[in-house]
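The following block was generated as part of the benchmark described in Methods. Ligand: glucose-6-phosphate.
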Amino acid sequence: MQYKDFSALESTAKLAQLAAKPYNLTQPGALSPERIQRFSVSSCGFTLLYATERLDETVLDALQELADEAHLVEQFMAMKKGAVLNRIEGYPCENRQVLHTASRDLFGEPPHAAAATAKARAELDKLRRFLDDLDSGKLVNSQGERFTTLVQVGIGGSDLGPRALSLALNAFALPEREVRFIANVDPDDAAAVLAGLNLRQTLFVIVSKSGSTLETLTNEELVRAALREAGLEPKQHLLAVTGEGSPMDDPSRYLASFYMYDYIGGRYSATSMVGAVTLGFLLGYEALMDLLRGAWEMDMAAEQSNIRKNLPLLMALIGIWNRNFLGYNTCAVLPYSQALSRFPAHLQQCDMESNGKSVTRQGQAVTWKTGPIVWGEPGTNGQHAFYQLIHQGTEIVPAEFIGFRKNQRGLDIQVAGTSSQEKLVANMLAQSLALAQGKEDSNPARSFAGNRPNLVLLAERLTPFQMGALLALYEHRIVFQGFAWNINSFDQEGVQLGKVLAKNLLQHLAAPSRSEEQTVGEALLKTAGMLA
Ligand code: G6Q
């Protein structure tokens, strides 16, 4: 397939013209009931309300043209079928397939990439047997007690997704099961997580695709030392998830080992063994399957070429409209769900590591904007904090609200005639309207300009299925945008650089040089008080 540059697409010229006069959300009647209904779409349990974006049917038509002209769905299909999309033509690069969708392509026949899905099934079968042994009491600790806690040790893609999902679904945890996470090489992170843990009944899953990440290997040693100190044999408590053939691929050192594959990028790996071991331990195998089914349904929904029906594609294009044509630099993801408190952090990695790029897939400098700055925190807490800037600041921040009609845990209370859940959702919708419509006031400090674009994503309840669908929705939104911008959304040279630079400085600390001459690194370490 011939990839076209974003700026070379005819539709982008048309969109640039339309952006001169975007839809005015503050004009009288701008938000009619008819518009609210018309600019909404439902898919996989979600309803997207996007009447509060600065677009109309003409803009949507032009965005459809962009999707068609840039072959976004065809590229997505090629990805699912195993095309080598993680590459920069003519330059050394990872040169890999991109097959995170294969890890959940379990519910329809035939799978899009049969070999990768067969491998995913084999790992899932291994995991099911492992979880069965835990449930039945066949696998217990040296004292015959059950394991109640699992600590995931990993960083970046080997941490953020599984952590966000575990928190999101903690309401569905099996009785007497809990999970924790250690990521940072900051020893206080591990110390705080280990504090108060009953190590005897704790399993640790060390997760590293490369098997060579400094933070994770260091924390593995820390955990092994803590177990030894407690008189326990580390091997009886440690599991591994790693790439085949990596330095960690040594089953003799672990109670059980699981594989992830090089065609699954770290930040896209939550539905592979990277997330499945921890989520399976916490929720049980059936709930894990529900999560994978939710992701799979969204994977299927993303195959439609009509942007008005394809939720991830539509969200990708709305994001492009805001970023490239209306010129907004950031995007706030604001879940009205405490359970989703770490989901923005996961998206931040997934989006910014994927689309924070400045060269095309042909290695040329881009002349258009790529990924925005993504950030967010749960509402309503944010309303009492940074929303001030979103309402009245000089930076316009497109917002994405995520909410649920029902709560997860059932506990609620009626105060002044409404439940807490109703208050939560009403707050979210009120924010959406206020940002769009603004408010005139003779006092300039109390006046709100409005016209601040936002969308609302609503579902019934945050279940494992719905979480899977939400995860895949955002994964595909990101990937569709990368395809449109003609960048490689699947490499991460910036992360690699960090890994190399830290190693260089650590060499100075491990073996201080006797030479009179100082390198810049040594001078920095000395001035920072780290080297004598
Ligand atoms: C994700 C990135 C990065 C990676 C971590 C951990 O897409 O590649 O965040 O996940 O650096 O890498 P390992 O899993 O190899 O330890």
